[in-house]
Amino acid sequence: MLIASLSSTVTSAIANHGVYAVFVLMAIDAVFPAASELVMLYAGAVAAGAFGDSISLFGISIPTGAGAYVTMALAGTLGYLVGAIFGWWLGKHGGRPLLERHGRWFHLTSDRLDRAERWFDRWDVWAVLVGRITPVIRSFISIPAGVFAMPFAPYVTLTAIGSAIWAFAFAGVGYALGTKYEEFHHGFRYADYVVGAVVILVVVFVVWRIVSTTLNRRASDPAG
């Protein structure tokens, strides 16, 4: 299934590339949903020694344990922060016109952008911190924050705090699971299948809406 394959890809990437994979995947998650929960769970399990006795950073071998846990969690925190800064920059310099033209690539439709605007109106600058520790919403904060011209300094500060809470918490759960992670993930795969089916249905619906809208426009356009 799609999500099962995704989770396998994520875990394989972290198993093969360790700290670097965690950094890159979390950077991506700041703009596109990239299973950050699974990334940090697996990173914590790796740090606990579930899949080896050390991790590597810039050629330095770090034994599994507390040091490896902190390293993995910091990699996730900093990776997410870098991605979030990039997303803010995109939003600030591209503005609404960027999202009107290419919003679907960022999963930011006009409706979602309107909801994001209401979110920022409700929480003000705290929208970033609250959003960063809220599942799903956390991946749709970066670009709107730039679009709505949130000041850079509080944006970075609150993103860093929220990212650290998220990364250290999920890595901590993975670390606590330790060698039991594979058993946990084996049972979790059934949830993967359910989510995968939902994703497929959503994709089919989106494609149908695009095709339907295109055909309706052509039918209503005498010049077409």
Briefly, what is this?
The chain is mainly α.
Description:
The protein is mainly α and about 220 residues long. It has one domain (about 1-180). About 75% of the residues lie in helices and about 5% in strands. A two-stranded antiparallel ribbon has the order 1-2. Helix 1 packs across helix 2 (about 35-45), helix 2 crosses helix 7 and helix 5 packs parallel to helix 7 (about 150-175). The longest helix is centred in the last third of the chain and has 40 residues, at about 180-220.
Question: Any chance you could write out the topology, listing elements then pairs?
Answer:
Elements: H1 2-29, H2 36-47, E1 54-57, E2 60-63, H3 66-102, H4 110-123, H5 126-132, H6 142-147, H7 152-177, H8 181-220
Antiparallel strand pairs: 1-2
Helix pairs in contact: 1-2, 1-3, 1-8, 2-3, 2-7, 3-7, 4-5, 5-7
